[in-house]
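Notes from hallway chat w/ T.B., transcribed later so I don't forget. T.B. wanted the structure written out for a chain they're using in a teaching module, and asked if we could keep both sequence and structure tokens in one place. Agreed to drop them here.
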Amino acid sequence: MQTATLERYFARQIYGSVALVLLGFLALFAFFDLIRELPDLDKGEYHLRQIFTFVALTIPTHAYELLPVVVLIGTLYVLAHLASNSEFTVMRAAGFAPVQAGRMLVRIGAPFVIITFVTGEWVAPYAEQAAQTLRMRAMSSLIGRTLESGLWFKDERSFINIREARDSAELTGVRIYEFDANYRLRQISAAERAVYRGGGLWQLLQVVQTQFVAGTTRVESHQQADWRSAVSPELLDVLIVAPERMSAWRLYKYTRHLAGNRQKTERYEIAMWKKLFYPLATLVMMALALPFAYLHARSGMVGLKVFLGIMLGVFFHMLNSLLAHLGLLQNWPPLGAALLPSVLFFLSAMLMMWWVERR
């Protein structure tokens, strides 16, 4: 009963602290996003209403990325505050062992794991996609606008060029270069537009097909023609949303598509494994905060501990991105590159706990 009372007390304090810190960070990041978008005000149809909508739609992505850091800061603040008031010392004197504290934090942190997973898998990807689509349409931008020739895809023995794609289900300026088993050019299809009909079927409109057969060339024109391809609107949406901001399921599907076409998959595999294990980082951050409760300090040291927590959170965020890029450059196993930051921080938490217990 005593343990249950303590757990409710800790949970109430930690949840309130984490919510307050998260609200502050989201307000700060939303302000930064607003400042960054204001130079594009009134470009095309990108007015103030669209800017505010865009900023609001990016909030779930920021919440997902910040949750482990916020949980670290909120938990560290609560534990440091209890330690400064000698409350945690009284709990230890009453028989509250470190193992019990660790188990209690795991139970308190479980909702954070679920919230992080749900936000990262469903809420943030769809909100991010909606935000980028809104911005692209309002500014009359094009997917892949940095390439003068448009987008390029490989689908089995075909190479596909798309000049414009304001909507992932309706393409403009489509060219399909089809090759035979020996990779000799067999046919070129040029269509003014392509509309997705579902089930992997596209309808090409105003098509000109040039066929190369037995040393001869034949040109045919059609008002419309069917085109079956693994290139779908879902795959095109990948170009709007960065891999790190996609759901694990979409990353898995796109990785299989790339592997089937013998293309590199490492970046998307690392992003997929990070997506699956990132929610557990909230528990790692709570474990990292626990040793600070065993450090005796006056009330004035609470601010210093919170500052240290912010620095540790920022370092974790930077290390998470850095190791992902290093893993991609050094051809590390994707699972290892995704797990390494959390493993390092968990081992650091265990080492710190061992050190404070020996003091």
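Follow-up for T.B.: Residues 151-235 form one domain. Might be a good example for the class.
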